[in-house]
Every structure is written in C-alpha cells, then in structure tokens.
Amino acid sequence: MDKMLYISMSGLKQTLQAQATNSHNLANVSTSGFRANLQTFTDAQVYGAGFKSRSYSQFSDNGVDLSAGTIISTGKDLDIAIKGDGFIAAQGSTGQEGYTRAGNLKVSANGQLTSATGQPILGNGGPIVIPPSSKIEIGKDGTISAIPLGQGSATVTILDRIKLVNPDKNKLSKGADGLLYLPDNAVADADANISVVKGFVEGSNVNAIDAMVNMIDLARNFEMQSKMMKKSEELDGASSRLLTMS
C-alpha cells in the first residue's frame, strides 16, 4: 500500500504548488503589465526493481505568458502603454537591467522616475531623474520633457529618453521581482522603432475566468488525492487485520 500512498502524496504536493501559482496569477488580475506564470503537469517514471508500472506526478514552472494585456485609458501624464511589441527597461532589485510592460510610472521622493512598484526606469545613461517640475510630458518615442518649477510654459527642457527594447521573447524569464530578464545578465539594445501612447496603461494578461476554473479543478484534484491517501490507510489497516487473523 506504500506505493499507492507515495504516488498520492506526490500528486497532492504538486497540486499545492500548482494552486499557489494559479492563486498568484489570480491575485494580480488587476496589476498593470503583469504577465501570468505558466504551469504544467508531467508524468515521471519510477525506475527500479520490478515492472515499470508506477509514475509520479511532477509539476513544473513552464515559463511566463507574454501575450498582451488590455489597454486601459487613464488620462494621466505619467501613464504610458507600448504600441505592439516591446518593453520598458527598468532596474531590478539586484541592479540588473530587466524589462516590463507596466507603464504606470511615478516620480519618487528623491526625483527618480520609477515603476508603480518602485523600480527605477532606465534612460540613455541609467536611472532617469526628474528635477522639480510643474509639468512632465512623455513623447511617443519615450522622450521625457518638463517645464522646470517656477518657469513659464515656454521653457521646456528635454531631460532623457526612456529605454525601450524589443528582445527575443523566447529568451526572457521572470525574476522574483516581477521583471523579465535575459540570460547571463545580457542587456538588450534600445529600439527606436518602439513607440508608446500617453495616458494609457496595459493591464494584466491574466484571464480571471480561466484562473477561477483552474482553481476549482485543482481543488477537486487535491480532494481526489486526499481520498486516495485515506483509502491507502484503510487498505493497510485491512491487510494488518487479515495478517493478525492468520
């Protein structure tokens, strides 16, 4: 009965991991620029003495869904959405250059242009710094211009240009901070063909209905594996009683 128990326990563990991934996606259904984590189950053959009659369930992180989300109008000057393919370059938690589609930008207390989660947005020479300004404009090519505080509307200063890139999507992987990274700390070149639209942001690409259906399926799978473990315990008890009687 131990074979049945261990196989059920394996399926139970993998289902919990899959449910955690699905719950994370569902929790970010309203997060701008969020890209859903993909998941898959596979059979892992158990090798050893005897017949090859057992397979364990194995859950694997199958990368990230890079399909586009819905473009949402906000009317805010610092909100931008990328038209077509491409990404905004940002500085990750480890200092490495990463990429995102989240265009709901803000200016931090120390004047840095950052993502909504506080990651510095990169320009031509590194993180972009915005001086005290009465108005900030972002052009369709990512150029940032501003009217310095205390000066008239005729005084417009070009500050920097947001680094827009279009790396090979097949090489991107998601980091723990939510940014997408190229392997081996590689850095993508700026692409002048990428353009943005001001006053819009791109929403999450998580389908809430699909995520809810998947959650129900995983819950039923968890219940089935639990019942298998319980049945294994009952069969083991029945076997022990038969041996005692003999």
**Beta-strand content estimate:** 25-35%
Proportion of helical residues: 25-40%
H/E topology pattern = HEEEEEEEEEEEEEEEEEEH
Give the termini distance in whole angstroms.
19 Å
How many β strands by DSSP? 18
Shape: elongated
Q: Roughly what is the average pLDDT, rounded to an integer?
A: 86
Oligomeric state, counting identical vs distinct chains: single chain
Q: How are the strands of the largest sheet arranged? A: 6-5-14
Radius of gyration (CA) equals 26 Å
Number of domains: 2
| Largest beta-sheet characterization | 3 strands, antiparallel
Query: What structural category arises from helix and sheet content?
Result: alpha+beta
How many helices in DSSP terms? 2
Low-confidence stretches: none
General description of the model:
The protein has 246 residues and is an alpha+beta fold. The chain folds into 2 domains: 2-66 and 206-245, no CATH class; 71-202, no CATH class. Helix content is 26%, strand content 30%. It is built from 2 helices and 18 strands. A 3-stranded antiparallel β-sheet has the order 6-5-14, with no helix packed on it. A hairpin with a 5-residue loop joins strand 15 and strand 16 (180-181). Helix 1 (2-27) packs antiparallel against helix 2. The longest helix is centred in the last third of the chain and has 38 residues, at 208-245. The radius of gyration is 26 Å and the shape is elongated. The chain starts with a helix and ends with a helix.
